[in-house]
Specification:
Blueprint lengths: L1 H18 L41 H10 L3 H6 L2 E4 L4 H11 L3 E4 L2 H4 L3 H14 L5 E4 L1 E3 L2 E2 L15 H26 L4 E2 L23 H17 L3 E7 L14 E2 L3 H17 L4 E4 L3 E2 L12 H11 L4 E6 L3 H4 L7 H8 L3 E4 L2 H14 L4 H17 L6
Parallel strand pairs: 1-2, 1-12, 2-3, 3-6, 6-7, 7-9, 8-10, 9-11, 11-12
Antiparallel strand pairs: 4-5
């Protein structure tokens, strides 16, 4: 019996042992119940805003002019340096403009004398259409003794008065009003450059230039120069300060040479003041006289002298178009070397030359370039200034 009980007990113990679960390796730790909630939404990663590329800077007027210059032939480039007297016949003028790619024409009294406003507009339009690069169309409409257009009743009932009369009537305010009216008058005819104002300092009625000048001292003339240039700029009319470096009491260089022996100090303290103020006001051009100014150059007229152009650039600070007075004047001929006043003037620093004989002068400039007597760098510098002026006047789109 005991054996059976023992056997039964042993069997029960064996069964119980087999039913027991083995201990968990983490039996001593309590497991957290599994969550039935969805996992929390992760925070979106903030994206840095895209870096905007800066807008490219638009090309400057100088850069645009350079691009035009780079596409020009050498003949076209040289042609831009010539401001030519209008040859009279409209068909011939258009032919010259197209053949030579001239920088511009200057119209004189004969172009208005027997014509009408409509006729002048047609002349100008014909030349502009013929030239591949828009032309400067200039005129001397100073007021008083030099009035190429308004002196004729077909163009204006009364000619424009001299700066002296306008100033006496109402000071600088009257000058501004007169300048605005004059610019509107010329633009209506198709002109875009008035070879004015005359900023020579002259207070002596016996001076040749007196009637064309303001007739005031250096500082007053400087204020006048700035006022005129500013109004012309507002009207889109090109201005030309003349006659650099100041005419003083010299004789008429249309008929012979004038020799100016005044000391440099007088130019620095008086005569250059209007040129400086006019340049600062935005004048596009400065016309250089044929006077021999001995304190700068004892042998050559200013228009042919490197010293005169250096004074204009360095002392006055002018960076626009420097042009000669008319190279066909009697005062120049005896000083010309190798037959070409244009070669001498451009070599000295002129950007444009005024002449009635563009074919001969352009041919001589091209020959001088081929022979190394004139550098292409000098010509390119001037052609670039001419193109920039045309852009500022709105003649060439920017």
């Amino acid at each position: 019996m005991k054996k059976r009980l023992f056997a039964a007990a042993a069997l029960l113990a064996l069964v119980l042992t087999g039913c027991a679960q083995p201990p968990s390796p983490a039996a001593d730790s309590v497991s957290a119940p599994e969550s039935t909630l969805p996992p929390p939404a992760s925070s979106p990663v903030e994206q840095a805003p895209p870096v905007e590329e800066p807008e490219p800077m638009p090309p400057t007027i100088e850069e645009q002019a350079r691009a035009i210059l780079d596409g020009m032939s050498r003949e076209e480039m040289v042609g831009q340096l010539f401001f030519v007297r209008y040859p009279g016949d409209s068909a011939l003028a258009a032919q010259w403009a197209g053949e030579l790619t001239l920088g511009g024409y200057i119209l004189f009294g004969r172009e208005f004398k027997e014509d009408t406003p409509a006729g002048v507009r047609a002349k100008i339009a014909a030349s502009q259409s013929a030239c591949s690069i828009p032309m400067l169309m200039g005129v001397d409409e100073e007021g008083g003794t030099v009035v190429r257009a308004s002196r004729y009743p077909a163009f204006r009932a009364e000619k424009f008065q001299s700066p002296q009369k306008v100033f006496a009537r109402g000071g600088l305010e009257a000058i501004r009003e007169d300048t605005a009216e004059k610019s509107t008058f010329l633009k209506d005819l198709g002109m875009n450059v008035n070879l004015a104002p005359v900023v020579d300092v002259s207070t002596d009625p016996n001076d040749f230039i007196y009637d064309r000048a303001l007739g005031q001292g250096g500082e007053e003339t400087a204020e006048y120069a700035a006022a005129v240039v500013e109004v012309m700029g507002e009207q889109g009319m090109g201005s030309v300060l003349k006659h650099f470096p100041g005419y003083g009491n010299n004789v008429d260089t249309h008929t012979g040479i004038a020799c100016d022996t005044r000391p440099l100090e007088q130019f620095l303290t008086c005569d250059l003041l209007p040129f400086r103020s006019g340049a600062q006001a935005g004048a596009g051009g400065v016309l250089v006289s044929h006077n021999i100014v001995t304190c700068l150059d004892e042998t050559l007229p200013a228009s042919l002298s490197p010293a005169a152009y250096a004074l204009l650039r360095e002392e006055v600070g002018f960076d626009g178009v420097a042009m000669t007075d008319d190279l066909d004047m009697a005062a120049v001929g005896e000083y010309v070397q190798e037959g070409s006043a244009a070669v001498m003037a451009i070599g000295a620093g002129a950007d444009m030359v005024l002449t009635s004989d563009p074919h001969t002068q352009i041919s001589q400039v091209l020959s001088a370039l081929d022979e190394g007597r004139l550098s292409w760098e000098r010509v390119e510098e001037s052609a670039l200034r001419v193109l920039v002026w045309k852009m500022k006047l709105g003649l060439i789109s920017t």
